Fold this sequence. Notes:
The protein is an alpha+beta fold. It has a single domain, classed as Nuclear Transport Factor 2, Chain: A. Helices cover 31% and strands 41% of the residues. The chain has four helices and six strands. It has helices at residues 5-22, 25-29, 49-62, 130-136; strands at residues 32-39, 45-47, 63-74, 80-91, 104-117, 120-128. Strands 2-1-6-5-4-3 form a six-stranded mixed β-sheet. Strand 1 (32-39) and strand 2 (45-47) form a beta hairpin. The radius of gyration is 16 Å and the shape is globular.
Amino acid sequence: MASTIQPQAAALIQKYYDTFNTGDREAFLALLTDDVAHDINQGGTELGKDVFRAFLQRMDRCYREQVRDLVVFANEDGTRGAAEFFIEGEYLSTDEGLPPAAGQRYRLRVGAFFDLRDGRVSRVTNYYNLEEWLRQVGAGK
Length: 141
């Protein structure tokens, strides 16, 4: 008999990105555990929902992004998952330590990995090619 846990895990990851795309940050944060670990691309790990909220506020100030062409995977016991997608965005306001923003548009392939616990996301790790993002926003030209 097939487990219903694996499809539930995949549905949670799908909902995570669907909710991200709506811009409803409180609904998005409700999908996370209070002690969520957020591994930032080429950065450190931030812990907790409040820290994740602050990260989202900075991202929303500096970028307008949408997830496209999402493919989701989950393991059989529903404790881990992964997603591959494209992030399509616009660089709105200069982010600290990065090139000046001038409304540049970008499209990047992203991989994300998840730990899932009690129907929520307890860890998310994101990977994308930062050098490609820099090229697309015109850094070094």
